[in-house]
Design a protein that fits this description.
301 residues; 12 helices; 2 domains; alpha/beta; 18% strand; eight-stranded mixed β-sheet; two-stranded antiparallel ribbon; Rossmann fold
Length: 301
């Protein structure tokens, strides 16, 4: 087990680490920084050291998530093995976004009902690992699931860098290519904005529904509220009541939606995105309600 394996529990931001866990993780960070000496630039090592200091002083779950991302960035292989393990490695696939950006994802389950899961849970940078537990649940229920990593951030920001909806469309097309006939798209945080924006670009004969958790109405070039006005498919919007300002964003997105079958679920939680699917962040009833919505969406489509 390497240092990335030991960080996986912190990656989803389930709960702040204990003092003992923080101490052990700090030691692992020191080893990771030392190990990056031969593969990381001087500036990169300074970033890692700063991240280690963040953990030592803040000791929060989000700090650990940030550090995990920095460590992963310093590796040449950009591996997601830290969350999937050997049993699921054969399920990793490569495909392209709608605008040709190379992406990778984890393909689970089978069947004609496909589900795209996209975007981060609890922090900005998205990873398919955020969706893995829920994706496996969906696969066991008979869906063909594609959990997707977000497109790489370019060194120089440009407008196309925020076209995350094109990743979702690319994943939807990949599911169709692999045998799905109907597809539901879902995302958390920025991924939720991307999912709603992408849903307006998917043919009505294909789109079974859309799920967004803790979405922003706008992010970069994406405008999920404008897209929601053009979407007739069933829509599910979930948010934590104490996750300001996303509560207001979710309510406004719900109001903008043209769907005749739409749900806005506000739960007593400060969790964001996929954190709402964790029992330590939100009531189990939220997850149950989402699963029921997904099942009903495919029945009515």
């Amino acid at each position: 087990m390497n240092e990335l394996d030991l960080f996986r529990d912190f990656r989803r931001g389930v709960a702040p680490p204990t003092t003992d866990a923080r101490g052990r993780a700090s030691a692992l960070l020191a080893a990771a920084v030392a190990g990056a000496h031969t593969t990381t630039s001087h500036r990169g090592r300074l970033v890692l050291l700063a991240a280690a200091a963040l953990v030592a002083f803040v000791g929060s779950a989000s700090a650990f998530s940030t550090v995990r991302d920095f460590i992963l960035d310093s590796r040449d292989d950009q591996s997601v093995d830290y969350c999937i393990g050997s049993a699921l490695r054969s399920k990793l696939i490569s495909f392209r976004s709608a605008d040709g950006v190379p992406l990778h994802g984890l393909l689970l389950g089978s069947g004609r009902n496909g589900i795209v899961l996209y975007g981060p849970g609890g922090n900005f940078r998205g990873s398919l690992c955020d969706w893995l537990p829920f994706g496996r649940t969906l696969a066991r229920r008979g869906y063909r699931v594609l959990a997707v990593d977000t497109r790489p951030a370019p060194p120089i920001p440009r407008a196309t860098a925020t076209h995350y909806e094109r990743d979702v469309v690319g994943a939807e097309r990949e599911l169709l290519r692999r045998g799905a006939t109907r597809v539901l798209v879902g995302g958390g945080f920025v991924g939720g904005t991307a999912a709603m924006t992408a849903a307006a670009l998917i043919p009505r004969t294909v789109l079974a529904g859309v799920v967004v958790l803790s979405p922003a109405r706008r992010f970069g070039v994406m405008d999920s509220a404008a897209a929601a006005r053009r979407i007739a498919a069933p829509s599910f919007i979930g948010v934590g009541r104490r996750d300001s300002p996303f509560v207001d964003e979710a309510r406004r997105l719900y109001a903008a939606s043209a769907s005749k079958r739409k749900e806005l679920v506000v739960v007593p939680s400060s969790g964001n995105g996929t954190q709402l699917l964790e029992r330590s962040w939100a009531p189990a009833s939220f997850r149950a309600r989402l699963l029921a919505f997904i099942a009903d969406s495919f029945k009515s489509s």
